[in-house]
Amino acid sequence: LTQAGVHHLALEWAAPTDNGSPITAFCLEMEDPDSGYGFRPVYQGEEPYCTCSSLQRATGYNFRLSATNDRGTSSFSHPITHRTLPDVPGQPPGPTLKDRPHCTVLNITWRAPEDDGGSEIHSFLLQLDDEQGGAPTYQGPDTCYLAEGLSPGRTYQCRVCACSEGGQGAWSSLSRFQTPPTIPHPPRALRLLGRPTQTSVTVEWDRPETSGGAAITSYSLEVRRANEGGWQAIGTVADPHIFLDQGPAPLSPPALVHTIEHLLPGEDYELQVTCQNSVGTSRPSTPLSCTMAPGPPDPPTDLEVTYRTASSAQLKWQPSVERGCPATSCMLELSAAGAERQVVYTDSTSSHVLRALRPATSYTVRLKVCAPPAAWPALSVSSWL
Protein backbone atom coordinates (compact mmCIF):
# COMPACT_ATOMS: atom_id res chain seq x y z
CA LEU A 1 0.00 0.00 0.00
CA THR A 2 1.50 3.33 -1.08
CA GLN A 3 -1.47 5.55 -0.42
CA ALA A 4 -4.90 5.20 1.18
CA GLY A 5 -7.72 7.66 0.62
CA VAL A 6 -11.39 7.87 1.47
CA HIS A 7 -12.39 6.31 -1.87
CA HIS A 8 -9.15 4.89 -3.29
CA LEU A 9 -6.20 2.61 -2.50
CA ALA A 10 -2.86 2.83 -4.35
CA LEU A 11 -0.84 -0.43 -4.44
CA GLU A 12 2.50 -1.48 -5.81
CA TRP A 13 4.41 -4.75 -5.77
CA ALA A 14 7.68 -6.41 -6.64
CA ALA A 15 7.86 -8.95 -9.47
CA PRO A 16 8.47 -12.58 -8.50
CA THR A 17 11.30 -14.73 -9.91
CA ASP A 18 10.58 -15.26 -13.60
CA ASN A 19 12.29 -18.71 -13.75
CA GLY A 20 14.01 -17.87 -17.00
CA SER A 21 11.11 -16.28 -18.91
CA PRO A 22 10.29 -12.57 -18.59
CA ILE A 23 7.04 -11.66 -16.90
CA THR A 24 4.63 -10.15 -19.39
CA ALA A 25 1.63 -9.22 -17.20
CA PHE A 26 0.20 -9.00 -13.71
CA CYS A 27 -3.35 -9.69 -12.61
CA LEU A 28 -4.63 -7.95 -9.46
CA GLU A 29 -7.89 -9.19 -7.98
CA MET A 30 -9.89 -7.51 -5.26
CA GLU A 31 -12.56 -8.86 -2.95
CA ASP A 32 -15.21 -6.67 -1.33
CA PRO A 33 -16.34 -8.73 1.68
CA ASP A 34 -19.68 -6.92 1.75
CA SER A 35 -20.51 -7.69 -1.88
CA GLY A 36 -20.48 -11.49 -1.66
CA TYR A 37 -18.97 -11.83 -5.17
CA GLY A 38 -15.54 -13.03 -4.12
CA PHE A 39 -12.32 -11.97 -5.87
CA ARG A 40 -12.71 -10.09 -9.13
CA PRO A 41 -10.01 -8.66 -11.42
CA VAL A 42 -9.37 -4.94 -11.08
CA TYR A 43 -6.09 -4.66 -12.99
CA GLN A 44 -4.27 -6.53 -15.79
CA GLY A 45 -1.10 -5.05 -17.23
CA GLU A 46 2.66 -4.85 -17.30
CA GLU A 47 3.17 -2.10 -14.66
CA PRO A 48 3.85 -3.19 -11.05
CA TYR A 49 1.37 -0.72 -9.55
CA CYS A 50 -2.33 0.11 -9.60
CA THR A 51 -4.78 2.59 -8.04
CA CYS A 52 -8.23 1.23 -7.20
CA SER A 53 -10.89 3.95 -7.21
CA SER A 54 -14.60 4.36 -6.38
CA LEU A 55 -14.24 2.39 -3.18
CA GLN A 56 -16.35 2.69 -0.06
CA ARG A 57 -15.00 4.76 2.81
CA ALA A 58 -13.58 3.09 5.92
CA THR A 59 -13.86 -0.35 4.33
CA GLY A 60 -11.37 -3.24 4.23
CA TYR A 61 -10.65 -4.84 0.84
CA ASN A 62 -8.75 -8.10 0.18
CA PHE A 63 -6.21 -8.21 -2.63
CA ARG A 64 -4.25 -10.99 -4.34
CA LEU A 65 -1.84 -10.96 -7.27
CA SER A 66 -0.66 -13.34 -9.98
CA ALA A 67 2.07 -13.01 -12.64
CA THR A 68 2.16 -14.32 -16.24
CA ASN A 69 5.00 -15.19 -18.67
CA ASP A 70 5.09 -17.24 -21.85
CA ARG A 71 5.19 -20.36 -19.74
CA GLY A 72 1.88 -19.61 -18.03
CA THR A 73 0.31 -17.94 -15.02
CA SER A 74 1.44 -18.31 -11.46
CA SER A 75 -0.78 -19.08 -8.52
CA PHE A 76 -2.18 -16.13 -6.59
CA SER A 77 -0.29 -14.58 -3.75
CA HIS A 78 -1.52 -14.88 -0.20
CA PRO A 79 -4.43 -12.39 0.22
CA ILE A 80 -3.70 -9.15 2.02
CA THR A 81 -6.19 -6.61 3.40
CA HIS A 82 -6.04 -2.82 3.08
CA ARG A 83 -8.61 -0.29 4.31
CA THR A 84 -9.81 2.98 2.88
CA LEU A 85 -9.82 5.99 5.19
CA PRO A 86 -12.92 7.30 6.96
CA ASP A 87 -14.53 10.50 5.70
CA VAL A 88 -15.13 13.61 7.78
CA PRO A 89 -18.37 13.62 9.80
CA GLY A 90 -21.45 15.23 8.33
CA GLN A 91 -22.94 18.60 9.28
CA PRO A 92 -24.66 18.54 12.69
CA PRO A 93 -27.88 20.47 13.42
CA GLY A 94 -27.51 23.96 14.86
CA PRO A 95 -27.01 24.25 18.65
CA THR A 96 -29.97 24.92 20.95
CA LEU A 97 -30.38 26.04 24.57
CA LYS A 98 -30.89 23.42 27.24
CA ASP A 99 -32.78 25.82 29.54
CA ARG A 100 -33.68 29.50 29.81
CA PRO A 101 -30.78 31.90 29.29
CA HIS A 102 -29.23 33.73 32.24
CA CYS A 103 -27.85 37.25 31.99
CA THR A 104 -24.26 35.91 32.06
CA VAL A 105 -24.71 32.17 31.32
CA LEU A 106 -25.90 30.12 28.33
CA ASN A 107 -26.41 26.35 28.68
CA ILE A 108 -25.82 25.19 25.10
CA THR A 109 -26.55 21.70 23.77
CA TRP A 110 -26.32 20.01 20.36
CA ARG A 111 -26.72 16.64 18.60
CA ALA A 112 -24.15 14.59 16.71
CA PRO A 113 -24.56 14.49 12.93
CA GLU A 114 -26.41 11.54 11.44
CA ASP A 115 -23.39 10.70 9.28
CA ASP A 116 -20.27 9.95 11.33
CA GLY A 117 -18.08 9.62 8.20
CA GLY A 118 -17.33 5.98 8.84
CA SER A 119 -15.50 6.35 12.15
CA GLU A 120 -16.44 7.20 15.71
CA ILE A 121 -16.84 10.87 16.54
CA HIS A 122 -14.38 11.63 19.32
CA SER A 123 -14.96 15.35 19.94
CA PHE A 124 -16.91 18.46 19.04
CA LEU A 125 -15.74 22.02 18.44
CA LEU A 126 -18.04 24.83 19.58
CA GLN A 127 -17.55 28.45 18.59
CA LEU A 128 -19.37 31.24 20.41
CA ASP A 129 -19.04 34.76 19.04
CA ASP A 130 -20.46 38.04 20.36
CA GLU A 131 -18.89 39.98 17.47
CA GLN A 132 -16.60 41.72 19.97
CA GLY A 133 -14.11 38.94 20.62
CA GLY A 134 -13.28 37.17 23.86
CA ALA A 135 -16.10 34.65 23.72
CA PRO A 136 -15.28 31.14 25.02
CA THR A 137 -14.70 28.17 22.68
CA TYR A 138 -15.19 24.52 23.69
CA GLN A 139 -13.55 21.36 22.35
CA GLY A 140 -14.35 17.99 23.88
CA PRO A 141 -16.50 14.85 23.75
CA ASP A 142 -19.62 16.26 25.43
CA THR A 143 -22.71 17.44 23.59
CA CYS A 144 -23.39 20.34 25.97
CA TYR A 145 -21.44 23.31 27.24
CA LEU A 146 -22.09 25.86 29.98
CA ALA A 147 -20.83 29.20 28.66
CA GLU A 148 -20.20 31.49 31.64
CA GLY A 149 -18.93 35.03 32.10
CA LEU A 150 -21.01 36.42 29.25
CA SER A 151 -22.31 39.97 29.00
CA PRO A 152 -25.97 40.75 29.79
CA GLY A 153 -28.22 41.93 26.97
CA ARG A 154 -25.94 40.59 24.24
CA THR A 155 -26.70 38.52 21.14
CA TYR A 156 -24.33 35.59 20.67
CA GLN A 157 -24.00 33.47 17.53
CA CYS A 158 -22.99 29.87 17.91
CA ARG A 159 -22.02 26.95 15.67
CA VAL A 160 -20.66 23.43 16.19
CA CYS A 161 -18.85 20.77 14.18
CA ALA A 162 -17.87 17.14 14.78
CA CYS A 163 -14.35 15.70 14.70
CA SER A 164 -13.31 12.10 14.07
CA GLU A 165 -10.42 10.10 12.66
CA GLY A 166 -11.49 11.40 9.27
CA GLY A 167 -10.97 15.01 10.32
CA GLN A 168 -13.12 18.02 11.14
CA GLY A 169 -16.58 18.03 9.64
CA ALA A 170 -18.63 20.89 8.27
CA TRP A 171 -19.88 23.62 10.62
CA SER A 172 -23.53 23.62 11.55
CA SER A 173 -25.80 26.50 10.69
CA LEU A 174 -25.53 29.53 13.01
CA SER A 175 -27.77 29.72 16.05
CA ARG A 176 -28.32 33.06 17.80
CA PHE A 177 -29.01 33.40 21.52
CA GLN A 178 -29.84 36.51 23.56
CA THR A 179 -28.73 36.93 27.16
CA PRO A 180 -31.32 38.94 29.13
CA PRO A 181 -30.34 42.34 30.55
CA THR A 182 -29.85 42.96 34.25
CA ILE A 183 -29.62 46.00 36.51
CA PRO A 184 -26.67 48.30 35.78
CA HIS A 185 -23.53 48.60 37.85
CA PRO A 186 -23.40 51.56 40.28
CA PRO A 187 -22.36 54.97 38.97
CA ARG A 188 -18.68 55.71 39.57
CA ALA A 189 -16.53 58.44 41.09
CA LEU A 190 -19.15 60.65 42.72
CA ARG A 191 -17.26 63.85 43.56
CA LEU A 192 -17.65 67.53 44.38
CA LEU A 193 -17.56 70.10 41.62
CA GLY A 194 -16.31 73.21 43.35
CA ARG A 195 -16.91 74.07 47.01
CA PRO A 196 -20.24 73.75 48.77
CA THR A 197 -22.07 76.97 49.51
CA GLN A 198 -24.20 77.48 52.61
CA THR A 199 -27.27 75.87 51.02
CA SER A 200 -26.19 74.09 47.81
CA VAL A 201 -23.56 71.72 46.49
CA THR A 202 -22.73 70.68 42.92
CA VAL A 203 -21.61 67.12 42.27
CA GLU A 204 -20.55 65.16 39.21
CA TRP A 205 -20.10 61.46 38.55
CA ASP A 206 -19.10 59.00 35.85
CA ARG A 207 -21.33 56.47 34.17
CA PRO A 208 -21.30 52.89 35.46
CA GLU A 209 -18.85 50.31 34.25
CA THR A 210 -21.67 48.48 32.43
CA SER A 211 -25.28 49.33 31.73
CA GLY A 212 -26.48 45.78 32.39
CA GLY A 213 -27.31 45.26 28.72
CA ALA A 214 -30.11 47.86 28.64
CA ALA A 215 -29.82 51.59 28.09
CA ILE A 216 -29.47 53.80 31.18
CA THR A 217 -32.62 55.93 31.43
CA SER A 218 -31.91 58.14 34.46
CA TYR A 219 -29.87 58.79 37.59
CA SER A 220 -31.30 59.44 41.06
CA LEU A 221 -29.55 61.37 43.83
CA GLU A 222 -30.12 60.80 47.53
CA VAL A 223 -28.95 62.75 50.57
CA ARG A 224 -28.91 62.31 54.32
CA ARG A 225 -27.32 64.07 57.26
CA ALA A 226 -24.15 62.40 58.39
CA ASN A 227 -24.63 59.52 60.86
CA GLU A 228 -28.41 59.64 60.51
CA GLY A 229 -30.80 57.01 59.21
CA GLY A 230 -32.71 56.90 55.94
CA TRP A 231 -31.80 58.43 52.61
CA GLN A 232 -33.99 61.08 51.02
CA ALA A 233 -34.45 61.28 47.25
CA ILE A 234 -33.68 64.78 46.03
CA GLY A 235 -33.61 64.66 42.26
CA THR A 236 -33.57 62.68 39.00
CA VAL A 237 -31.14 63.40 36.18
CA ALA A 238 -31.66 62.23 32.60
CA ASP A 239 -28.62 61.17 30.60
CA PRO A 240 -28.30 63.23 27.41
CA HIS A 241 -26.14 60.47 25.92
CA ILE A 242 -27.68 57.02 25.46
CA PHE A 243 -25.35 54.76 27.43
CA LEU A 244 -25.54 51.11 26.38
CA ASP A 245 -22.43 48.97 26.73
CA GLN A 246 -22.65 47.36 23.29
CA GLY A 247 -20.42 48.33 20.44
CA PRO A 248 -17.74 51.02 20.60
CA ALA A 249 -18.11 53.39 23.54
CA PRO A 250 -18.34 57.14 22.86
CA LEU A 251 -15.04 58.93 23.17
CA SER A 252 -14.68 60.49 26.61
CA PRO A 253 -18.39 60.99 27.38
CA PRO A 254 -18.81 64.00 29.67
CA ALA A 255 -19.51 63.43 33.35
CA LEU A 256 -23.01 64.02 34.65
CA VAL A 257 -23.55 67.10 36.83
CA HIS A 258 -26.31 68.11 39.25
CA THR A 259 -26.73 70.86 41.86
CA ILE A 260 -28.44 69.96 45.13
CA GLU A 261 -30.15 72.88 46.83
CA HIS A 262 -32.06 73.72 50.01
CA LEU A 263 -29.44 72.27 52.37
CA LEU A 264 -28.55 73.74 55.75
CA PRO A 265 -25.38 75.77 56.45
CA GLY A 266 -22.61 74.13 58.42
CA GLU A 267 -24.18 70.66 58.26
CA ASP A 268 -22.36 67.43 57.35
CA TYR A 269 -24.11 65.48 54.58
CA GLU A 270 -23.67 62.21 52.74
CA LEU A 271 -24.64 61.92 49.07
CA GLN A 272 -25.08 58.92 46.79
CA VAL A 273 -26.37 58.28 43.29
CA THR A 274 -28.05 55.31 41.59
CA CYS A 275 -28.92 54.66 37.93
CA GLN A 276 -31.88 52.99 36.27
CA ASN A 277 -32.51 50.93 33.16
CA SER A 278 -35.55 48.95 31.98
CA VAL A 279 -34.78 46.13 34.43
CA GLY A 280 -34.41 48.13 37.63
CA THR A 281 -32.16 50.28 39.80
CA SER A 282 -28.48 49.77 40.46
CA ARG A 283 -26.82 49.58 43.82
CA PRO A 284 -25.83 53.03 45.16
CA SER A 285 -22.49 54.56 44.41
CA THR A 286 -19.89 54.93 47.12
CA PRO A 287 -21.24 57.70 49.41
CA LEU A 288 -19.69 61.14 49.20
CA SER A 289 -19.29 63.18 52.39
CA CYS A 290 -19.34 66.96 52.36
CA THR A 291 -19.66 69.83 54.82
CA MET A 292 -21.68 72.88 53.87
CA ALA A 293 -20.18 76.35 54.19
CA PRO A 294 -20.86 77.88 57.62
CA GLY A 295 -23.69 80.34 58.07
CA PRO A 296 -25.12 82.48 60.86
CA PRO A 297 -27.03 80.74 63.64
CA ASP A 298 -30.79 80.55 63.50
CA PRO A 299 -32.77 83.13 65.51
CA PRO A 300 -33.70 82.10 69.06
CA THR A 301 -37.20 80.67 69.38
CA ASP A 302 -40.06 80.55 71.86
CA LEU A 303 -39.44 83.98 73.42
CA GLU A 304 -42.02 84.27 76.20
CA VAL A 305 -42.83 86.11 79.43
CA THR A 306 -42.87 83.63 82.32
CA TYR A 307 -44.19 86.12 84.96
CA ARG A 308 -44.64 89.84 85.42
CA THR A 309 -45.30 92.45 88.12
CA ALA A 310 -46.10 96.15 87.89
CA SER A 311 -42.40 96.97 87.42
CA SER A 312 -40.65 93.76 86.32
CA ALA A 313 -40.96 90.77 83.96
CA GLN A 314 -38.96 87.60 83.38
CA LEU A 315 -38.18 86.49 79.81
CA LYS A 316 -37.12 83.04 78.58
CA TRP A 317 -36.23 81.73 75.13
CA GLN A 318 -34.77 78.69 73.38
CA PRO A 319 -31.13 79.07 72.33
CA SER A 320 -30.46 79.44 68.62
CA VAL A 321 -29.35 76.50 66.46
CA GLU A 322 -25.79 77.01 65.27
CA ARG A 323 -25.05 76.66 61.55
CA GLY A 324 -21.30 76.35 61.53
CA CYS A 325 -20.61 79.62 63.39
CA PRO A 326 -21.18 79.48 67.15
CA ALA A 327 -23.31 82.22 68.75
CA THR A 328 -21.20 84.41 71.01
CA SER A 329 -23.94 86.34 72.79
CA CYS A 330 -27.57 87.43 72.89
CA MET A 331 -28.53 91.11 72.86
CA LEU A 332 -31.88 92.13 74.37
CA GLU A 333 -33.40 95.43 73.21
CA LEU A 334 -36.35 97.09 74.95
CA SER A 335 -38.49 100.01 73.81
CA ALA A 336 -41.66 101.61 75.10
CA ALA A 337 -44.30 102.82 72.69
CA GLY A 338 -42.86 105.64 70.57
CA ALA A 339 -39.43 105.50 72.25
CA GLU A 340 -36.10 104.38 70.84
CA ARG A 341 -34.83 100.86 71.51
CA GLN A 342 -32.27 100.44 74.24
CA VAL A 343 -29.93 97.54 74.87
CA VAL A 344 -30.75 96.24 78.33
CA TYR A 345 -28.95 92.89 78.27
CA THR A 346 -25.94 91.27 76.57
CA ASP A 347 -24.99 87.78 77.64
CA SER A 348 -25.04 84.13 76.55
CA THR A 349 -27.76 82.83 78.88
CA SER A 350 -31.31 82.03 77.74
CA SER A 351 -33.30 84.07 80.33
CA HIS A 352 -33.34 87.58 81.80
CA VAL A 353 -35.38 89.63 84.32
CA LEU A 354 -36.38 93.15 83.23
CA ARG A 355 -36.63 95.62 86.11
CA ALA A 356 -37.61 99.25 86.70
CA LEU A 357 -40.43 99.06 84.20
CA ARG A 358 -43.28 101.60 84.25
CA PRO A 359 -46.59 100.18 85.34
CA ALA A 360 -49.36 99.78 82.76
CA THR A 361 -46.95 100.46 79.89
CA SER A 362 -46.64 98.55 76.59
CA TYR A 363 -43.08 97.47 75.69
CA THR A 364 -41.55 95.85 72.64
CA VAL A 365 -38.77 93.36 73.26
CA ARG A 366 -36.32 92.26 70.53
CA LEU A 367 -33.69 89.56 70.98
CA LYS A 368 -30.64 89.43 68.71
CA VAL A 369 -28.06 86.66 68.30
CA CYS A 370 -24.49 87.67 67.53
CA ALA A 371 -21.90 85.40 65.91
CA PRO A 372 -18.56 85.93 64.14
CA PRO A 373 -17.66 87.16 61.66
CA ALA A 374 -18.98 90.60 62.24
CA ALA A 375 -20.33 90.64 58.71
CA TRP A 376 -23.15 88.31 59.65
CA PRO A 377 -26.36 90.28 60.11
CA ALA A 378 -27.76 90.06 63.65
CA LEU A 379 -30.75 87.74 63.72
CA SER A 380 -33.63 88.69 65.98
CA VAL A 381 -37.00 87.65 67.30
CA SER A 382 -39.54 90.17 68.70
CA SER A 383 -42.35 89.99 71.23
CA TRP A 384 -44.85 92.33 72.88
CA LEU A 385 -44.72 92.78 76.59
Helix content: under 10%
Q: Tell me the strand percentage band.
A: 35-45%
The major beta sheet can be summarized as:
5 strands, antiparallel
* Secondary-structure element order, N to C: EEEEEEEEEEEEEEEEEEEEEEEEEEEEEE
Secondary-structure-based class equals: mainly beta
Number of helices: 0
Mean pLDDT rating: 87
Low-confidence spans: 247-251
Principal-axes geometry comes out as: rod-shaped
Overall description:
- The chain has 385 residues and is an all-beta fold.
- 0% of the residues lie in helices and 44% in strands.
- The chain is built from no helices and 30 strands.
- Strands 3, 4, 6, 7 and 8 form a 5-stranded antiparallel β-sheet that branches. Strands 11, 12, 14, 15 and 16 form a 5-stranded antiparallel β-sheet that branches. It has a 4-stranded antiparallel β-sheet with strand order 20-19-22-23, with no helix packed on it.
